[in-house]
Write a structure and sequence with these properties.
Elements lengths: L5 E5 L4 H14 L2 E8 L5 H11 L4 E6 L1 H14 L16 H15 L3 E3 L8 H12 L4 E3 L10 H10 L15 E4 L4 E4 L29 E8 L2 E5 L2 E2 L2 H14 L4 E7 L5 E7 L1 H17 L2 H20 L5 H13 L5 E8 L2 E8 L7 H4 L11 H20 L1
Parallel strand pairs: 1-2, 1-4, 2-3, 4-5
Antiparallel strand pairs: 6-7, 7-12, 8-9, 8-13, 9-10, 11-12, 13-14
Helix pairs in contact: 1-6, 3-7, 4-5, 7-8, 9-10
Length: 401
């Protein structure tokens, strides 16, 4: 095995990656360059830098990728209306390809021999990171400590941290916190009591939303403007992608929107329970489907809906950089050329209610759809349409009984 002299580590500053940093130094005797992507996770960024300095990282990269994340990853995914297994809005999944991309670029810049991540051998993230690494640099060496070391549990990790003077985060009860992942699109929670799918999450766990019962008694109305399938404004204020999503998070979270308690089928084969907060994304999905309802043809919408589960599965499983995802994205984006207009929504106690939609090139024609008298649609024409479509059904009944 070739000697490792430099490793670029995807570093959050949390317990797992801090232990990994020390373990890499001891096991490989190498320089560890940390990379922390600012994807909108908040206050933990400054702590990550300080932690990397205290742990003796050879170089420290902390980069603001929020706009790129939303513009080039989140928004393309929402053009597809992607939802995994009917519920999950893919907040963790969509962040991994960008982190992997930048990690590979840094590895090339600093002349690193390898990249490393903190994903466990039981999870999806190991697949997502490594498929990204290899798609972007087929010859890169990957170090996955959870698949190599003897620290086979969270408690063993805590013991290692304490014996190596690595600070162990604690929650309000003085215990190690839930395993979380945060970015501008969502926050996820796993572990502890959540490993029992019958046990409800603690209310004090949530950070981006109030419970629906604690939301305001009066609704909040907002209007979202779209251009070619992407949101560009809230009300009369045009915003950058990251600024817009952050604003949606705030207003939606304040109205108790975006919580999901999911048992999902992981790519590696097991079922896993996770709790998610995706306030802005929940609103955005409803609004995007509303603008498509008046700007896309029926066949376009139906075909998109057929393709969506496959597209969502590709992202969930880590195939963002695959040719099949590129192919689906090209087809999806073609449909968005006309998806320009405005959607009005009412946000109320966990609900997102579409109350209006308009578009300059709307396919909705009141003169045709009206229940009043019209000169456009001859209702008698429907008889022949129905008889032709019934022909095979009548033939089947006559022959088979």
């Amino acid at each position: 095995m070739a000697e490792i002299s430099k490793v670029v580590l995807a570093y959050s500053g949390g317990l797992d990656t801090s232990v990994i940093l020390r373990w890499l130094q001891e096991t490989y005797g190498c320089e560890v360059i940390t990379f922390t992507a600012d994807l909108g996770q908040g206050d933990e960024l400054s702590a990550a830098r300080a932690s990397a300095e205290n742990m003796g990282a050879a170089q420290i990269y902390v980069e603001d990728l929020r706009e790129e994340f939303v513009k080039d990853f989140v928004f393309p995914m929402f053009r597809a209306n992607a939802v995994y297994e009917g519920t999950y809005l893919l907040g963790t999944s969509i962040a991994r390809p960008l982190i992997a991309k930048r990690q590979i670029e840094i590895a090339q810049d600093v002349g690193a021999d390898a990249v490393a991540h903190g994903a466990t051998g039981k999870g999806n993230d190991q697949v997502r990171f490594e498929l990204g690494y290899y798609a972007l640099n087929p010859d890169i060496r990957v170090i996955a400590p959870w698949r190599e070391w003897s620290l086979n549990s969270r408690s063993a990790l805590v013991d290692y941290a304490e014996s190596n003077q690595i600070p162990v985060p604690r929650d309000k009860r003085g215990e190690p916190p839930y395993s979380t992942d945060a970015n501008l699109l969502h926050v996820s929670y796993e572990g502890k009591a959540l490993e029992d799918p019958w046990v409800p999450p603690d209310e004090d766990m949530f950070t981006r939303s109030v419970g629906p019962e604690s939301a305001p008694e009066q609704p909040t109305w907002i209007e979202i403007g779209f251009e070619h399938g992407d949101p560009i404004s809230i009300g009369d204020k045009t915003m950058s992608p990251a600024t817009l999503l952050a604003a949606l998070n705030q207003v939606a979270g304040a109205n108790g929107i975006g919580r999901a308690d999911i048992v999902e089928g992981r790519f590696v084969g097991m079922k896993s329970r996770g709790v998610y907060e995706t306030p802005g994304g929940t609103v955005l999905l409803a609004a995007h489907r509303a603008i498509e309802s008046i700007t896309l043809d029926r066949a376009e919408i139906h075909l998109k809906d057929e393709l969506m589960p496959r597209y969502a599965e590709l992202i969930y499983n880590g195939f963002w950089w695959s040719p099949e995802r590129d192919m689906l994205q090209a087809a999806i984006d073609k449909t968005q050329a006309s998806a320009t207009g405005t959607v009005r929504l009412k946000l109320y106690k966990g609900n997102v209610i579409v109350e209006g939609r308009q578009a300059p090139n709307s396919l909705y024609n009141k003169d045709i759809a009206t229940f009043e008298a019209d000169q456009v649609y001859n209702q008698a024409d429907a008889e022949g349409f129905i008889r032709i479509n019934a022909l095979r059904l009548r033939a089947l009944k006559e022959q088979r009984g």
